[in-house]
Amino acid sequence: MCKRTMKVQRIAQKLTAKFINHNKRKRKLLYANLSTTVK
Question: pLDDT per residue over 8-23, tens digit each?
Fold first, then answer.
């Protein structure tokens, strides 16, 4: 049981890290698009 929960937590951490990185990349793209449209 303990091992399983640890595994699940590790997977969840990996997924959240991936999600955060993806959001950061998306935000950067959005900012780039906004700056180009403003110019």
Answer: 999 999 999 999 999 9
